[in-house]
Amino acid sequence: MSRSNAVALIALTLVAPGCAQPEPESRADDFVPVVASDDDQVALALDDENQTIMYEAEEPFVRLGVMWDHLDATPPEVRMRESDTEWSDWTAIEVVFTEEESHAGHLDAPGGLARFYQVRFPAGPPSLMAIEPILELPDLSSELPVEGYDPDEDDPDMSDAAEGDIGSSQEALSMGSFAIHSRRAWGARAPRCRDRGPTPTRATIHHTVTPNNDSNPQRRLRQIQAYHMDSQGWCDIGYNYLVSSDGRVWRGRGALYIGAHVTNANSGNVGISFMGTHTTRPASLQQLRQTARLLVRLRRRGYPISLGRRDIKGHRDHGGTSCPGGALYEQIPRIIRIARSI
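^ that's the sequence the OP posted. Answer follows.
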């Protein structure tokens, strides 16, 4: 994550947080969750004006990205400065997504670069606040534009058919009840561009650093996609697949297209993100089983991803992050054991 060096937080419980192309320089998990009602996240110390302390980013950044949940759509306000300049005026962020209580947006650094920032909440503390200093925006001029996009046919090798259509009857029996829910099912936008990648040979486990047990994962998916596309500047949602707390598997970019989830290691790498925060809370058995079934299905579609730790890693194994949280990271061997038993 793009973590801050100076962060004074008060835990809601006793837990602190952990998650040659332009896009691979960024990571889809690079959020700092600073306010949440979830017992696996943390609360932010606010003053009597609902204002945070000053944060210092690890490196100068060009944009501050924000995802938050609040019943009041009033956007948070930000002020920024470089190391030797005065604070900018308090400015409302540019909102790129709002749907019921879920929102996303960003604010560009005045003068092009900033190092310090503060946030305040005119509508009062949100139930989720995730802040990311974005170091640079990608140049997508060389990316392939999307033509004839169909949200139900963007990943033909991993169709949405349920168990009876997986393949042979024996395969359906061994896989159990399993389906990949299409982009249409969660209301995905068409990607701006995409690159078809090489045959996947590995997979990486992530978590989205959002509240656990979302009652509406479809809305959360739309929020994440809007943030990735409109604030991060990516072509599409960063992950290839996502698994919600109820065990449903959702198509992100799909297996055939290069994701944006691990710095400099996206090619041939399927990003599978658990929706929630798993710093201390383990993923559910249903999530583990369905992720194992997804990995088996990838293999049965001809993708040579071995069912072992050599090819199935956590994001932290690639360095620079604590994603997918300590609890989920410890469950990766169990995912592999379940997959081997199918």
